[in-house]
Amino acid sequence: MVIVRKRKEAVIENPVGAIFREVNLIEYKSPEDYLSVEDFHKVVGAYARLYSVLSHVEITDMTVSFVTGAHPQKLLDYLRDVLRYGIQERWPGIYYVSGDILPVQIIENRRLTGEDDIWLRDLTGDLNGERLGKLLEQRRRMPADAPFS
User: Fold this and answer.
1) Could you report the per-residue pLDDT of 17-34, keeping only the tens digit for each?
2) Are the C-beta atoms of 35 and 108 separated by less than 8 Å?
3) H-assigned helices in 93-128
4) Rounded CA gap, 96 and 90, in Å?
5) What is the pLDDT of residues 65-94, one digit of tens each?
6) Is the dihedral of CA 48, 53, 55, 58 positive or negative?
7) How far is CA 13 from CA 26, 85, 110, in A?
8) What are the C-alpha distances in Å from 80 to residues 12, 18, 37, 42, 147?
9) Exposure class string for 42-54: b at 16+ Cβ within 10 A, else e
């Protein structure tokens, strides 16, 4: 789990960061793992709410993002059919989940297509020299005052 804080005045136009609020919890599943119903409940139902209380952050100022390499069909079916949450694929590989008190997105990193998404797309365990070069080049171009801390 990674916690990313965004400055309130920052505007993020990248599809992955478009839903970000002040505090953003990101749960990354390794390429060998899958995103389960239990993972969803653990992060959204427990970690996010506990962090909100202990850090004195309004739950409505938070988001949760899950990053997975495998398509989470069982979880998407559960969210839609059992919890009656809305599921919308906003961009290739980025699913918005609506119905809870805080915004949730599920990112299928192997399906990401944008140049701004290479940081997540290349967390797949099969990074080659060419893609590593692109990552390093993009890092060199990043401004020192990026909207994250």
Assistant:
1) 788 989 999 999 888 899
2) no
3) 118-121
4) 7
5) 999 989 999 999 999 999 999 999 999 999
6) positive
7) 18, 25, 20
8) 28, 22, 12, 18, 33
9) ebbeebbeebbee
